[in-house]
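Deliverable D5.2: sample structural annotation.
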Amino acid sequence: MKAFKYIAGIIMLAATVSSCQKDLNRVPTNALTADKVYSTPEGYKQSLAKIYGAFALTGNGGPDAGEGDIAGIDQGTSDFLRLFWNLQELTTDEAAIVWNDPGLQDFHVMNWTSTNVMIRGLYSRCLYHITACNEFIRESTDEKIASRNISGAEAENIRRYRAEARFLRAFEYWVLMDLFGNPPFVTENDPIGKFTPPQTNRANLFNYIESELKAIEPELVAAKQNEYGRADQAAAQALLARIYLNAEVYLGSGNNKYNDAITYAEKVINSAYSLNTSYRSLFLGDNNVNNTETIFAINYDGVNSQTYGGTTYLINAAVSGAMGPATFGVPNGGWSGMRSTRNLPETFGDYSGNTDKRAMFAGNKIEMDDITIFTDGLAVAKFSNITSTGTTPPSPNGVYTSTDFPLFRLAEMYLVYAEAVKRGGTGSEATAIGYINLLRQRAYGNNSGNISTYTLNDVLNERTRELYWEGFRRSDLIRYGRFTGSSYLWPWKGGARNGRAVEAFRALFPLPSSDVNANPNLVQNQGY
């Protein structure tokens, strides 16, 4: 199991959350009340484990249980990363899928509706996670800690846990802001039970996320001083840099915050994190070991945190039986699901991997004549469950993986800095070129790929080469004005073989119709 153990806290926090669904003056029928769960420092740590585990796991009963945390969706598809990745990548030129699961084909052809089960799944997963964070934050005030006779270093630890829970909540609100724009909004200060959440909007949510991250920045552990898989100051700074780079998307044209993006990217760049010498090792089955670059990851373990989502999904769905699943560390896997359009490999020029080692593709046919045939389009071999020493981590079924998924890594901050400078922020273009060249030197293995000047489009292409399949593409294309409309096309965009213009309103996903119908405070996003 990875350094931070998820499982221990699952039952405890689930019990406390579920015990708070009725009127406040009722006595919970579940004997495991919040006062018992949080009665000891260990209880707080175990509950924090559940907060983190909500990223990687789907429920308390394991991946084959009848139901998970999220109702109304197949449990195997209901984890955060699988849903988030589908919405961020399958909607773009970087990925298309052959399966015909309900709602899945809607993404690449961009005709989703407010009843799409995957969209509702991600929306519900984010709000579930926020609810769990709110509960932890509510139970970890100074007054609550003192009432439980916890003091000294143990109390200080709980205050740091609380800051981490606020970071995780801010992250989930960023996801909702980026994908849905105007979601419902609840915090630890709202009543539990019979409460109809109000709707917020992007501007107000941006301000809230920014204020939360700035407030907790000094309360979090210094960069790279926390347990692996837990948030530190660099994680908060990286999320701030990311939202500042996208500020004009969230706040409207003319409301840029490129100077702030530079400031916070530099904080991370100047912290204890450094580039890994090997790009490939960032995406292998032991990428939790000696990893100097990943700032914050979702942890997976083929034995102790099993799921059909996460990197189990990314690796198995990207591999076919003909590709040799065992060579990817999934001997009984290989689901033949996802591959790229030609736009992704062609961004590398030479996509063989002989020049730029980040180009990791397989297959013989770059054209995607038929979106339902796996061998139409190149497979992506970036993520693997094989370790850096060539072994396969333990897995009871030969399918579950132990490869962690990086939500933040240092390379992104280099590119945030370069883009913010090129968009007019106050920084050094020479420094930006130096950052880009560091990434390219690692990719090329020498200085032959170095640049001496760059354009804004060069940054987008470098982001593609460096960050593909890491959940950035939809947001990047929106920031560059290429997600909707006809200025940039890819195979099957809008359902046309060569791509077609897509309506501007699809830059936001709809709020699920089931929630709009249930909550009179919600107004549906335009176009849906």
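Annotation notes: DSSP finds 19 helices and six strands in the chain. The first strand starts at residue 96 and ends at 97.
The annotation will be released with the project's public dataset once the embargo ends.
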